[in-house]
From TrEMBL:
This is Gnk2-homologous domain-containing protein. It comes from Populus deltoides (Eastern poplar). The chain crosses the membrane at residues 140-164. Keywords: Membrane, Repeat, Secreted, Signal, Transmembrane, Transmembrane helix. The keyword Membrane applies.
Amino acid sequence: MERDPNYTLWNTKNVAVLADFNRILVDTIGTAVYRAANMPAGAKKFAATKANYTTEDNLYVLVQCTPDLSSSDCHQCLLAAYSGLEICCNEKRGGRILFPSCIVNFEMYINYNETYVEAAALAPPSPVPQGDKGSSKKTWIIIGATLSTIVGVLLFSSFAYTMWRRKKREEIRNSQVIQLLDMEGRTIEDDCSNEIMCGEVKSQDSLLIKLDIVLKATNQYSNENKLGQGGFGPVYK
């Protein structure tokens, strides 16, 4: 809600009969302010009211707020504008104050189009836009299908990678056994007692390498084949 810059205008003539003028002005502006601030959602926040001042004169009041204001802000803006009118336009036949967010105007002559005001008062408020429920449902279905596809691809990829790693480890293990047998001058067919190469591994004992193969592979634990020393003992190539 904006109040600055603001502009104040007033009629240079004073009212002829002062009796009850201020009371009528306060009541008429108060009614207009209440109506404008409490317009239904989607309707324009303005109101025009008329009151009999004398047998010859009527008092016309017009108030309006910008559409972006809430009911509470509109009410506060109009009251602030009216407070400014009380200072500038006491006993005047007309006055108006313009804020960026609202205006208050009173005159002793009609200052608005009565036909337009009556039509606007009878017109239903603009409907509040509602979301398309059908489109929303379709969107959620698409999102769900996409997520399901992604999860399926990730699970399949994880399974495939696990199987590849397992196969790779078996190939490396078999390659090591073949190298040891070659060093001894034997082949896989000559040593089918090795369950790794001739069938399934049924126990941890089948993973043990014969001592004669180890001795030959390390050249009788020669220092020339020693790679280093670890926590579990020396390591040979």
